[in-house]
Amino acid sequence: MKIAIAGTGYVGLVTGVVLAHLGHHVTCVDVDEAKVETMRKGISPIYEPGLEELMAENMSRLTFTTDYASAYRDAEVIYIGVGTPEKKDGSANLSYVNQVIDQIAASLERDCIVVVKSTVPIGTNDKLEQRLRDNLAHPVSVEIASNPEFLSQGTAVKDTLHAARIVLGVESRHAEQVLRQVYAGLDQPIVVTNRRSAEMIKYASNDFLALKISYINEIANLCELLGADIQDVARGMGFDPRIGNKFLNAGIGYGGSCFPKDTKALHWVSSYHDRELKTIKAAIEVNDRQKLLLVKKSHKYYDSLEGKKVAVLGLTFKPETDDLREAPSLVNIPILLDDGAKVYAWDPVGVSNYKRFYPNEITYCQSIEQALQDAELCLIFTEWADVKALKAETFRQLMKTPIVLDGRNCFSLDQFRDTGVVYDSVGRGVVK
Ligand code: UDX
After folding, report:
1. Rounded distance from Cα 283 to ligand 1 centre (Å)
2. What sign has the CA pseudo-torsion 335, 259, 321, 60?
3. What architecture does CATH give domain 201-290?
4. 381 neighbors 345 (Cβ within 8 angstroms)
5. pLDDT by residue (tens digit) across 10-62?
6. CATH number of this structure's domain 2-193
7. How far away, in angstroms, is 378 Cα from ligand 1 center?
8. Which of 14, 118, 152 has most ligand 1 atoms within 8 Å of CB, for mutation?
9. How many CB atoms lie within 10 A of CB 251?
10. Distance CA 137, CA 215 (A)
């Protein structure tokens, strides 16, 4: 089929490449000429394992352009995957989506299904459909479908090729049939609902996962106080299929482009309708507090960090991505710098993005060893594989004072017992 995709961020580009892989002819549209030029050369503008390889395999069916009119004019299906960033009040900013809708209305010359993948507040797609139909330049039949995206950064390609489910929010049999045809090459359960339910499924899923993380983080903080071990507790809980063993990793809170934004957006909507979601409000508050856990803990070991060399391992919000959005490092490092610490940071892919925030204030290290050399404190913000592969001796040998505050529980406690390293993680007590 002939498909156009608006936006080449994580959602748009991964969707486009996977649809090309399924045999469709896909034109990806972006406003950024430099980015489009990069993609034409087969280079992915985002770091996402497996994406560039899949792009290379399917370049014959992929076109990249800034010319939206030619891309949308005769597309059978148009996906919208542009951002819906958070506004100051927590609600979703729909200006990019609206802009694409207007461009589609001006360009479309054939009947088409417009699929909204961007996360939009419940009811938005009804309004988008009206806006689209009101502004059509040509007499074509057009319908909006909601097809929320559940991919995680770092595993986006795998998640799309092997999704747990595909949710189709449609208002007609025709839209359902067209989308079933688009996804015919994928063997995944398809959940068909009306549009509003599909929109809600996305928010409710993300917010439930965020709530699960905040819940386990609160339990972890209590475990620390009462002498229980959160990993044993989570393992014991996870065997119950009603609970499940996923998303029970305690740490310094969730970051990224979805959970923080989507919890705030649903909370905003619920409050607007006088039905405040108290559970989601709590999840947000717990997460904000949890992100500061390591700097708070550092005061157990030092009254002041003035002049201290602090090694920071990991800057991104999670491994296998260079994305810094809502990363705990972004709230902790400013505090460390304010306290007068000398920050030596290592991250395998996040440094160039981090330099945009802190070009000179931090020493960026080429290796973990360089960051740890003579450090008086080590803070682990991201569970990169290279960090998890470290040995207690490395911390002991390189650091001036081997105190490791691990915000992602990268190691077992046994690895640090009787090693001379102070190892303080989340929800598990301190090992020396
Ligand atoms: C998330 C959802 O998983 C995905 O379905 C949705 O489409 C977009 O948002 P993503 O933000 O890429 O994906 O990453 P995810 O792996 O879900 O992690 C989000 C955050 O939660 C990370 O900061 C991670 O460190 C944290 N997390 C995750 C925990 O703290 N504990 C866990 O057990 C799991």
Report:
1. 14
2. negative
3. Orthogonal Bundle (1.10)
4. no
5. 999 999 999 999 999 999 999 999 999 999 999 999 989 999 999 999 999 99
6. 3.40.50.720
7. 24
8. 152
9. 27
10. 50
